[in-house]
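Changelog note: in this version the structure field was regenerated for every chain. One regenerated record is shown below for reference.
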Amino acid sequence: MKFSTSNYMALATIATCALAAPVIYDTNSTAELMSPLSQEVLGWSHATFPAIYQTCNETNTRMLNAAFKDTAEVTAYGKSRLLNYGIDDAYYKRWFGNGSIFTVMGVFDQLMEASKGSMLMRCDDADGLCAANPNYYAGHHRESAPAETVICDYFYNSKTAFNYLL
């Protein structure tokens, strides 16, 4: 099965958010929390993030931006750990088994630094799949618009703390 950049980003976003800790903001500035993420992300020289569509309200946008930040943090930590400990690391074995370290590093790089110019995260249920799967779909790609990912309400309600990741 061949994955595209949008598949990797959607998978990472949904997986990271499912494992993410409750969001704690170090600011009360709505403008700052609503603003696009900086390209300068610790651990990544050219981090890129998908656009968030206008159908996402302030809370949706805050949580998606927090999820993107969590994804950057987790992948930077993973990349650093791979470089320091290699394939003999217990966490590497747990999460990637006998998978190639080059594949894992490539996926991390693709997730964080590949162009996401055409990708769009949206919060409306344009295709009705969120309503049809309210306790199952955290999000999905739109068949009629493959670069778009719909984020469902279940995504926001099914988060688990970061400490369960390890």
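Spot check on this record: Confidence is low (pLDDT under 50) at residues 1-34. The longest strand covers residues 148-151.
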